[in-house]
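Appendix C: a fully annotated inverse folding record. The material below is reproduced so that readers can follow the format used throughout the book. The structure is listed first as tokens, followed by the designed sequence.
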């Protein structure tokens, strides 16, 4: 990624060679840096939103809660707090849990009648939905907070004004701060009101490795994060370069 601070400094030097007065140079560099900051903040927030949506598609609450925005020098990237990228889950045998508090049949085996509810009806809100919505809401709030801070600082030019050292960092800090808040939302659910469509019997006679087994969940997010970050760096470089060129072409 291009160093936005350095690009602003280079723009300043090139404008000086054109014999512009310091007030004009400051004004141009201030405007360019402010626009870069705004665009970079929005691109960073959009990348975080893409990661959340990818986690929702993979049905991984753990990944969504682990999403992190980190800074390395003048670069930003989407990664995870834990450093983990594979959130796949192996098949999970549910029979032992289903047979808790089960009834005893005449032959001594355990059994329990399980109601099967229709999917996609009723008012049930899953933990995944709540977590996704909370994460997206928090990202948008961070984006708005960065804009408000940036707007409040307009006209207060500093030589080192840049998207990562000023307003871009506010988004970074805000996104970091909401991680714990997301987790508190993850367990909030409404009681299911979906209609019961059928009943099945779980029994200790059944093979726990073949019956009532939740299938493996594939949620390796390595390639997803790689693609998101590659696109983020490309878009940031393109934005910085085009904004600098546009302001320089005015003079």
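Designed amino acids, in order:
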């Amino acid at each position: 990624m291009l160093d936005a601070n350095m690009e602003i400094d280079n723009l300043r030097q090139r404008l000086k060679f054109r014999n512009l007065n310091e007030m004009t140079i400051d004004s141009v560099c201030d405007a360019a840096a402010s626009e870069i900051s705004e665009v970079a903040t929005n691109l960073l927030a959009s990348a975080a939103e893409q990661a959340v949506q990818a986690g929702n598609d993979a049905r991984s609450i753990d990944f969504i809660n682990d999403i992190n925005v980190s800074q390395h020098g003048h670069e930003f990237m989407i990664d995870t707090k834990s450093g983990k990228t594979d959130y796949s889950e192996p098949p999970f045998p549910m029979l032992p849990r289903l047979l808790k508090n089960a009834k005893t049949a005449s032959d001594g085996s355990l059994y329990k009648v399980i109601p099967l509810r229709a999917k996609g009806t009723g008012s049930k809100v899953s933990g995944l939905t709540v977590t996704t919505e909370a994460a997206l809401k928090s990202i948008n709030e961070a984006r708005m907070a960065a804009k408000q801070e940036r707007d409040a600082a307009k006209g207060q030019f500093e030589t080192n004004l840049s998207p990562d050292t000023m307003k871009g960092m506010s988004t970074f800090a805000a996104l970091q701060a909401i991680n714990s808040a997301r987790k508190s939302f993850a367990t909030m659910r409404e009681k299911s009101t979906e209609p019961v469509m059928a009943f099945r019997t779980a029994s200790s006679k059944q093979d726990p490795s073949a019956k009532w087994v939740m299938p493996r969940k594939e949620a390796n997010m390595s390639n997803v994060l790689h693609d998101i970050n590659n696109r983020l760096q490309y878009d940031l470089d393109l934005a910085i370069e085009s904004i600098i060129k546009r302001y320089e072409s005015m003079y």
